[in-house]
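Example (one chain per record):
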Amino acid sequence: MNSAMDEINLLRQAQRQHQHHLMVRGMGEEIDLEIGPGDDPSFSGADLVAVASGHHDTDEHKSLLIPCSGAVDGHAQPPAPQPQLAHGEEHDGKLRRPSAHTKKKKVVKKWREEWADTYKWAYVAVHDNTTRIFCSVCKEYGRKHRRNPYGNEGSRNMQMSALEEHNNSLLHKEALRLQMASKEKLQPPEIERPVYVKALSKTAASILESVLRRDPHEAEFIQSIQEVVHSLEPVLVKNTQYVQILERLLEPERCFIFRVPWIDDRGEAHVNRGFRVQFSQALGPCRGGLRFHPSMSLSVAKFLAFEHTLKNSLSLYKLGGAAGGSDFDPKGKSDNEIMRFCQSFMDELYRYLGPDQDFPAEDIGVGPREMGYLFGQYRRLSGHFQGNFTGPKIFWSGSSFRTEATGYGLVFFARLLLAEMNKELKGLRCVISGSGKIAMHVLEKLLPCGAIPVTVSDSQGYLLDEDGFDYMKYSLLRDIKAQQKNLKEYLKSYPHAKYMDDAKPWSEQCDVAFPCASHNEIDQGDAVAIIKSGCRVLIECSNMPCTVQAVDILRKAKVLVAPAKATAAGSAWRT
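Predicted structure:
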């Protein structure tokens, strides 16, 4: 005991004389001693000698480090007892203070190993030329902190502490909840796919090259432009004066991107992004759909607005083209949540709408319910109730008065096309993709024509009834979709039917195909499957349902492809 007290007194004397900051650390920890102003400069080069504390703790052994400068109070420094070492370690009697560079690397390695084992939800990235620690769920990073004894790497530790606090915040909890609540499996980060460009003449290629330079990452918009340029190539070669006109047409007049904050039923805040593209008002006020879907982006909005511009130009009405929406997903949301989102969406958009400027319509995720919420907020903000859809007697949400117009018109177009081939729909086997508004009305209209529709689909697979759907089966499907149930519910009433998970219906034998789901749903593999199924006619129902490569394959196989710009021209404006 006396020996231990002597050692402690010796340490106190050394501390008073040299005024060094002595720090107690557990054996094996990284040690960083800071020298304050006025300290002995020889201290930085002195060796560090380990001194046993004399009191052995049951959990761990600790040691005290003092500078060994040769003598204390004029007396030689006695050799200190060696601290206990872990099994297999060797010690030469002295602990050398490593250089700052070597120590920094060692701390970095140790910190990263600890982070990799403990914080699975975090990752390191550079932001504004500064290394930050980000949350992999919501991409937020920890706050910037002052330097601590661990230096820059210690700042990372402090960032991690801030990020842990962030994990308990509403923002992170909501991002994690939405991620876990998603029915679809998490996909790896999307890799930018190269844009497929067909061989064009020099005149037509110059138009497409200018678009590629201006918007290289907007794949959907570039694809829609490429289809038009390729179709008009013979005209552009003969009439070069149209090149400048087309170049002006390919640039939208106005694009709006805005924030849409809303509150869910638990009182938690969310933020989505809203879009509206008014592509052209050359013929009249803009008209186009609103789409609420997670895949919504500026590229999709521009492509849809461009498609509506061309479709409306083929109708009897003098209308321009527009499109918009949000990356908001209405699936799984309550009526109150959808109402609050629609009201917040309209708070920003209403100033750009009007009977002489722009009036929206329905699209994916937006039906009569959503249109009612949107119009109610528009009327409240604008202060008047006016018709600005199809005419003086049809009000703002007027497209819901004849929701079947687009689907019926597609079947009517198919009948005219087959009549040119001296054929009719009666007895023909038809394959339909999708189960939304357009797909269900296509199915409904095929029944009185005598056709045999055998499939419908959703995001999880497709339903096949070899006997074909009749009026009773159609009524059941309509009720299932109205209750927002899965198509598998159909099997409870008709067990002979089949539901194919994670598959598309294009391999089923058919005479006519009606793709009604979404854009680019038919790729090269699907095109080959359609050819093998015996299909001879494909009626494009959704906007740009086939990729450029798929269209080339189908046409080489003599499959007649009716483009959506013609089949859906006018859409709900049909009477």
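Caption: The mean pLDDT is 75.
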